[in-house]
Amino acid sequence: MSRAVPGSHDGTTPTPPRAVVTGIGVVAPNGFDADEYWDAVLHGRGGIDRITRFDPAQYPATLAGEVPDYDVRAYIPSRLVPQTDQTTRLVLIAADAAVRDSALDPAALPDDQVGIVTGLSAGGLEYSQRELEKLWSLGSDHVSAYLSFSWFYAVNTGQISIRHGWHGPGGVLTGNTSGLDAMAQARRYVADGLPVVMCGAVESAMCPLGLAIELTTGRMSTVDDRTRAYLPFDTAASGYVPGEGGAMVVVEEVGHANGRGVQPYCEIAGYATTFDPRPGSAREPGLRRAIESALSDAGVTPAEVDVVFADAAGVGELDRAEATAVTAVFGPRGVPVTAPKTMTGRLYSGGPALDVATASLSMRHGVIPPMINVTDPVRSDQLDLVLGRPRDTTVSTALVLARSDGINSAMVLKAV
Length: 416
Hints:
- By secondary structure, the protein is of the alpha/beta class.
- The chain is built from 11 helices and 15 strands.
- It has helices at residues 34-42, 86-102, 125-138, 147-150, 155-164, 178-191, 208-215, 254-259, 287-298, 316-330, 350-365, and strands spanning 19-27, 48-50, 63-65, 114-119, 170-173, 196-203, 245-253, 266-275, 307-309, 336-338, 367-368, 384-385, 391-392, 397-404, 407-414.
- Strands 5-4-6-7-1-8-15-14-9-10-12 form an 11-stranded mixed sheet, sandwiched between helices. Strands 2-3 form a two-stranded antiparallel ribbon.
- Strand 14 and strand 15 form a beta hairpin.
- Helix 2 crosses helix 5 (155-164), helix 6 crosses helix 11 and helix 9 (287-298) packs parallel to helix 10 (316-330).
- The radius of gyration is 21 Å and the shape is globular.
- It starts with 18 loop residues before the first strand and ends with a strand.
- The model is unreliable at 1-9 (pLDDT under 50).
């Protein structure tokens, strides 16, 4: 697809089309839609509790942020239920909600003019475990043929395409930063002339296999008090609590959105991603460079940023590195920093996507949602953490950060 940029006959440099967020769909442990989720984060209602999807008694970690029970057949066709993992079901629900929120009529566009980009870090683990257990215990005749694609990283992009009949450019990214990276890819598609892109990430790994895999990292909290288990930037930080959910958003070219009479939430104004140096090299981690590059890409200065949505690993070493990077760019206590994921747990690829949705809502409503449970900040001299209660303020520019095993991504959102 050729790049479509505004024509210029006066010698000025043409600028690429701008990508704006016009629709948001959320599924989270503390809210099954955007309104419910937003009300929860403003009032500090968390969704972390003891795992109910299976008995976690035999595992050292017993807490997670689970999406509340729901009637799946009320949201997706019955024929899809036996074909799909929880991850894909939640993706379809969030994508449908984003379409409704954007007031987009899918039939009003040629099917090749809507793109789809999703992020996913684990695949359909719950479905895979269930079918593999049948293989071991009952034999291959009892394994669903749908296993052939239900586990696959690209399945969410494919299922959205089938459901809505969209056949434009598509893609899938992987890793815990991929919810953010998917939105950056959507921005590139818009710059290349595509009017609409569905993008984001929703993830679920709430099964024994998923928990066992994550426990091998050594970074998961084993504290069984849901108010003390996940404490990023706190002296009592003991690791992270996993969760499920995320967000899907409709991204449009700003002229296309204006032509429909839609008021965007925000513009995806800048993005960058970096790698950390080789362990043992004594070189600085790459997060600061990602932040500075994203700000440069957006054409904004650190002083113009109103809030940072932190990655907030909940691991002492990683929290200190993030605090150092943020302070290096913004100065000591130079910008409000928040992590609403303290209410949901870390949602893998879905976490950064949900942070973008939350930042978009912050811009629309003029309030920064808080972190909860953090009572003894370890870097209070460095970070201006938004703790306990929301902070009413104009939010014109927000920075969202995400990290994943040596990868750092940063995105700048601006009010439109």
